[in-house]
Amino acid sequence: MPHDVHAAGIDLVDLCRWDLAVARTKGELLQRVFTLAERRTAEDRADADTPYERLLGKAFGVKEGVVKAVGGLPTDTAFKDIEVEVAPDEPVWSIRLHGALERWATECGVEMVGGAHDLGDDMAAAWAAAHAPARLEGTTP
What we know:
39% of the residues lie in helices and 26% in strands. It is of the alpha+beta class. Strands 1-5-4-3-2 form a five-stranded antiparallel sheet. Strand 4 (111-120) and strand 5 form a beta hairpin. Helix 1 packs across helix 4 (52-70) and helix 3 crosses helix 4 (52-70).
């Protein structure tokens, strides 16, 4: 593992099962798990190849990767406390943490990034990594 990576987590997303969960809950799952900003970004970046719900399925996998990287979801924390910048054309997605997760990242001196990659057969691999942010030359660690 590179020296600047503090923790990492991965998740395998079965997008067919994700589609069923979204349909079964009539979209309530999306409301419960994602912030309005995440849902709007996914809507804006969706296309014919990757619909809105599928982008959010990949973002859910990234959120699961965060939970694994931090060793579990702290008490009084929700998936909305992990805010994923859905960026399907980018290899690395920004992640903003809130509440207890933000405090954890601050205490550890790390920031969280992630991403998702299609594997075919309606499967995606999602990942998240807590890493030491790049320091500007001349600054103190």
